[in-house]
Specification:
The chain has 346 residues and is α+β, with helices and mostly antiparallel strands. It has helices spanning 13-25, 31-43, 49-56, 62-73, 96-101, 115-130, 140-151, 203-216, 236-248, 253-271, 278-287, 291-303, 306-309, 315-322; strands at residues 46-48, 77-81, 89-93, 135-137, 162-165, 172-175, 182-184, 190-196, 221-228, 325-331. The chain is built from 14 helices and ten strands.
């Protein structure tokens, strides 16, 4: 079977999604079953029965029983029993030929994952299935190709959220490293960028926003949708403050100049504690001791002065004021506590 191409020259995601669905249906599945499995393979690798029922618009019964039995008997999915039969059973779609058929033979969702990551993946899949008015991009290639097509000459690879490993000729760049869905609404400029809270403190969220700032600045309308598991609800005010810091509070030029000086001196001080202007250094250390600057310093160590100067841009603040940019918090309504015996943060 010939794998589906991830980026045809006349790329359209709806066409690619149809090709992927047909490729999976060729394994003896209905179109609806194949479409669901494509969503699972792209966004999570795992699912529970209620998610298929929601997707298909059916209740638990013979149809779901037959579908799940087919997946298991043919080796397409592996059951993971963590509770009572219909409450705690997970299914891991792990059959390599299925992934190869959609051009994702090396997708890490196919491989075994710890139960904590499984729970996170289930949460992400719930978010994707909850809003079918958006088409959800899951792979790095899909996201890159969409934005290169949608924004054309206005975007470069440097505008994509990225992580660089190594340096010089041996460096490797990975775009969209967070591996979270981005929603696009057909025939519109609306984009939804999903973030899943997994820790009570928003340092990782700040990094996420910093990484996406350049791309968000090129979009006409965008929403950061923060998924909040019920045990994390008390952290919403902290995440809201982090969003205001990173998106709605550009730094003044004189502050940026002082911050750049402080970062350079701080780095030298950490290597050899000898500062020429101790008073200035102490004042700067006190002024830049908040979480925003702590996270920014780590980014500066990796990417240099450009991350500091990027904080002077008013583009994202202006988008928020025009209501073209939004940050919304979505508390996940489904219960995952039946997995708590296996994961401490479920």
């Amino acid at each position: 079977m010939t794998p589906v191409s991830d980026a045809p020259s006349n790329w359209r995601f709806d066409r690619l999604a149809t090709e992927r669905t047909r490729a999976v249906a060729a394994f003896g599945l209905t179109e609806r079953q194949a479409w669901f499995l494509v969503e699972v393979m792209i966004h999570s690798g795992v699912f529970v029965e209620r998610q298929y029922c929601h997707f298909a618009g059916i209740v638990h019964g013979q149809k779901t029983h037959d579908f799940l039995r087919k997946l298991v008997e043919r080796g397409y999915a592996r059951p993971i029993q963590v509770g009572s039969l219909h409450r705690g059973r997970l299914f891991h779609v792990c059959y390599k030929p299925l992934y190869a058929a959609i051009g994702q033979a090396d997708n890490r969702h196919r491989k075994s994952m710890p139960i904590g990551r499984i729970v996170e993946r289930l949460m992400v899949l719930d978010a994707v299935l909850a809003d079918r008015s958006f088409t959800w991009l899951g792979t790095e290639q899909d996201k890159r190709t969409h934005f290169l097509t949608h924004l054309q000459e206005r975007v470069t690879e440097d505008d994509f959220p990225r992580i660089t490993f190594g340096s010089g000729e041996v460096s490797t760049r990975r775009c969209f490293p967070d591996k979270l869905p981005i929603g696009i609404r057909p025939n519109s400029d609306d984009h939804v960028v999903i973030y899943l809270t997994t820790k009570p403190m928003p340092d990782d969220f700040r990094v996420f926003l910093q990484r996406h700032a350049a791309l968000l600045g090129l979009l006409r309308r965008w929403t950061i949708q923060v998924l909040v598991p019920q045990p994390m609800a008390a952290a919403i005010p902290r995440f809201g403050q982090a969003a205001r810091d990173e998106l709605a509070t550009p730094l003044r030029l004189n502050m940026t100049q002082e911050l750049e000086w402080y970062f350079h001196v701080r780095q030298r001080h950490e290597r050899a504690p000898d500062v020429a202007d101790e008073d200035r250094f102490r004042r700067a250390r006190a002024a830049f001791s908040t979480p925003r600057y702590r996270v920014l310093y780590r980014a500066w160590q990796k990417r240099g002065d450009s991350v500091v100067w990027a904080t002077t841009s008013h583009v994202l603040r202006d988008a928020l004021e025009r209501k073209d940019g939004r940050v919304e918090f979505v508390q996940l309504s489904h219960q995952y506590m039946h997995l708590s015996s296996l994961v401490g943060v479920a």
